[in-house]
Structures are given as C-alpha cells and as structure tokens.
Amino acid sequence: MRLTLAIAAALIAGPVVLPQVAQTQDRPPAYTNAETCLRDRAPDAVAASNGAADAADFLLNYLCAEQVSYATAYENNSALIGAFESMSEFDSREYAEPVAVAEADNPADPSLPPPAVPAESDELFSMNPFEGLSVDPITGEIGSSDPDVPINSLLPMLSPFMGLQGGNGAGQPPLFLRVLAGELVLQQRR
After folding, report:
1. Is the dihedral of CA 78, 32, 40, 181 positive or negative?
2. Which residue among 20, 86, 109, 164 is the one 20 to 30 A from 187 at the CA level?
3. Cut 0.90: pTM above it
4. How far apart are CA 74 and CA 140, in angstroms?
C-alpha cells in the first residue's frame, strides 16, 4: 500500500515539474518535432475551423496528432520511469540501513567463517526491476539498454500507474503544447 501511494504521489507531481525542466535543458526531439508541426500547420487549422478552440483542437488532435502523441508519451513515460527510479533508490536505501545498523550492533564473530564472496552473477543483480529502462527521445516509447530485458513483460507492471502521471487526464497533450497551439491559433486569426 505504501509503495502504491508513493508511486501515485510521485507520478502526480512529475508532470507539474517536467515542462519547467524541459525549458532549461536540451529538449528532446519529441517536443521540438511537435512544436514544429504546430507552427507549420497552424494556418491550416485556422482556415479549416470556425472558432479558436476548434482550431486548436484540430491542430493538436488531428493535423499534428502523431507528433503530439510522441511528445505526450515522452512526458508521461519520463515521469513514470523517473518515479520508479526514485522509489527504487529510496527502497534500496531503506533496506540497506537496517542491515548496516545490524552489522554495527553485532560485529562479526571471529569463530564464524567469513561471508562468501558474491559470484559475478550476484553482483549484476539489482533490486530495481526498471534499471536500464529509458524513454526514446523521438517516439516517447519505453525501451531497455539490455536486450535480455523483456520489455513486454515489464509493461504490465507499469500499466496500473500509467493513468496516474497524466495529472488531469492520461494522454492529455503536455501543457506547453496546448498553450503553444492556442497562441499560434490566436496569432493566425489576427
């Protein structure tokens, strides 16, 4: 339960911060491609629509639907992966602290054999099942740097949380793209 609440809190907070971060860092192609499409197709949306809201909707959801969907997926999946990485980091520290305290309270007994040296495969084991996952900067899809990680088997674990990171609606285009579409439509209507 605590894990679910922490995931929900991190995912809800994630998209609120992301647009500010995106403005100060290098922007992924998913964002720049969507912005370019909106700028290029705004005149067509205004010409085909009766009102500003209809034109912005037509621009976001029809004329630039593919590019906007990639930007939406990038924002949502980046927030999702970031939340899971943060939680895994928190959980690993949480479990490491009691072990360290127990070792400090109970020094090694000299009559016992030393602990076994971990095998190479043990060193590669991670408590984070999402380690090595990344978000494609062009399509926003989740991928893995490890070809042995079956992404399709991990996605069902992520799916219960997919709707949480969208803030006021999963699949909603990022706020900065909705604002840009509105501004471009207003500029074209003048």
Report:
1. positive
2. 20
3. no
4. 4
Between CA 74 and CA 8 the distance in angstroms is 18
The pLDDT score that the predictor gives to residue 102 is 53
Residue 118 CA to residue 113 CA, distance in Å, equals 15
pLDDT range class, residue 71, cuts 50, 70, 90 = very high
Q: Which residues does 109 contact at the CB level (< 8 Å), separation at least 6?
A: none
Axis crossing angle, helix 151-162 with helix 65-105, rounded to the nearest 10: 100
- If you write DSSP's letter for every residue of the chain in order, what string do you get? -HHHHHHHHHHHHHHHHHHHHHHHSPPPHHHHHHHHHHHHHHHHHHHH-SSHHHHHHHIIIIITHHHHHHHHHHHHHHHHHHHHHHHHHHHHHHHHHHHHHHHHHSPPPTTSPPPPPPPHHHHH--S-TTTTEEE-TTT--EEES-TTS-HHHHHHHHHHHHTTTTTTSTTPPPHHHHHHHHHHHHHHH-
